[in-house]
């Protein structure tokens, strides 16, 4: 298990520490590969991190920002993760980054997933750094316990990097990276905030099974890529 974690009494300190850790790993990726792929989650938790990163002087022109997952809505929809990333991350210094959206108008969800899968392969099939959140149900990305696709989404042998997820208890059909897409990363940075999520995290970390009941387990109990948990 390649897990490290830090707990913070002050969430502002957590976000500042996470920003420094993500920035360092992105700079290392660019030094080693001449470019970096940075995958970011949506939801409410990451926005303060994005705002800090947007002000940091990184080689953004060599960094491609992608989504860990997306609701199947256009970027003018209130629930769009692409909109969240454009408004909070792709500003200031980070305006120079390349952004690849998952949702494309005129395509159905499976077509968008296949198109994005192709784009990620053209980038080398490597996500260098990913920022992940977790829901109270133990989902991360769009690996929802209640979605029909959950087994395939967290299957380390899934040949797809991007697939469709259809949660029954969360709004919108989703597009999501699969577990294999994250298993070559330099760093997976997981942000856990609030007592409910900390309780779910502790259970997911303590017991590896049943993995589909708390899909975050797919990242916490693998031994291929480092996962750093930031808790506040
Ligand atoms: O599209 C999304 O909603 C996110 O990518 C999702 O995976 C998120 O990380 C969790 O749902 C936690 O969301 P909060 O940060 O809002 O609690």
UniProtKB/TrEMBL annotation:
Pfam families assigned: Glucosamine_iso
Domain Glucosamine/galactosamine-6-phosphate isomerase: 10-222
GO molecular function per UniProt: 6-phosphogluconolactonase activity
Keywords: Hydrolase
Keyword Hydrolase: yes
EC number(s) from the headed UniProt entry: 3.1.1.31
Catalytic activities: 6-phospho-D-glucono-1,5-lactone + H2O = 6-phospho-D-gluconate + H(+)
GO biological process: carbohydrate metabolic process; pentose-phosphate shunt
InterPro entries in UniProt: 6-phosphogluconolactonase_DevB (IPR005900), 6PGL (IPR039104), Glc/Gal-6P_isomerase (IPR006148), NagB/RpiA_transferase-like (IPR037171)
Enzyme class: hydrolase
Pathway terms, separated by semicolons: Carbohydrate degradation; pentose phosphate pathway; D-ribulose 5-phosphate from D-glucose 6-phosphate (oxidative stage): step 2/3
Family: Belongs to the glucosamine/galactosamine-6-phosphate isomerase family. 6-phosphogluconolactonase subfamily.
Function text: Hydrolysis of 6-phosphogluconolactone to 6-phosphogluconate.
Name used for this protein in its record: 6-phosphogluconolactonase
Organism: Permianibacter aggregans
Organism ancestry: Bacteria, Pseudomonadati, Pseudomonadota, Gammaproteobacteria, Pseudomonadales
């Amino acid at each position: 298990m390649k897990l490290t974690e830090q707990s913070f009494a002050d969430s502002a300190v957590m976000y500042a520490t996470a920003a420094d850790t993500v920035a360092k790993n992105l700079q290392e990726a660019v030094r080693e590969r001449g470019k970096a792929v940075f995958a970011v989650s949506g939801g409410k938790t990451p926005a303060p991190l994005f705002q800090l990163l947007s002000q940091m002087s990184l080689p953004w022109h060599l960094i491609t920002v992608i989504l860990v997952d997306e609701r199947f809505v256009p970027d003018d929809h209130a629930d769009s993760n692409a909109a969240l990333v454009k408004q909070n991350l792709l500003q200031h210094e980070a305006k120079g980054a390349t952004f690849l959206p998952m949702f494309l108008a005129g395509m159905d969800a499976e077509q968008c997933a296949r198109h994005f899968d192709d784009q990620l392969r053209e980038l080398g099939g490597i996500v260098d750094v990913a920022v992940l959140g977790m829901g109270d149900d133990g989902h991360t990305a769009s690996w929802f316990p209640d979605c029909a696709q959950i087994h395939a989404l967290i299957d380390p042998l899934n040949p797809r990097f991007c697939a469709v997820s259809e949660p029954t208890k969360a709004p919108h059909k989703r597009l999501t990276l699969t577990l294999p897409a994250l298993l070559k990363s330099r760093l997976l940075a997981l942000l856990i905030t609030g007592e409910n999520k900390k309780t779910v995290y502790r259970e997911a970390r303590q017991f590896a099974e049943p993995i589909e009941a708390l899909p975050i387990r797919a990242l916490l109990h693998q031994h291929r890529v480092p996962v750093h948990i930031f808790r506040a």
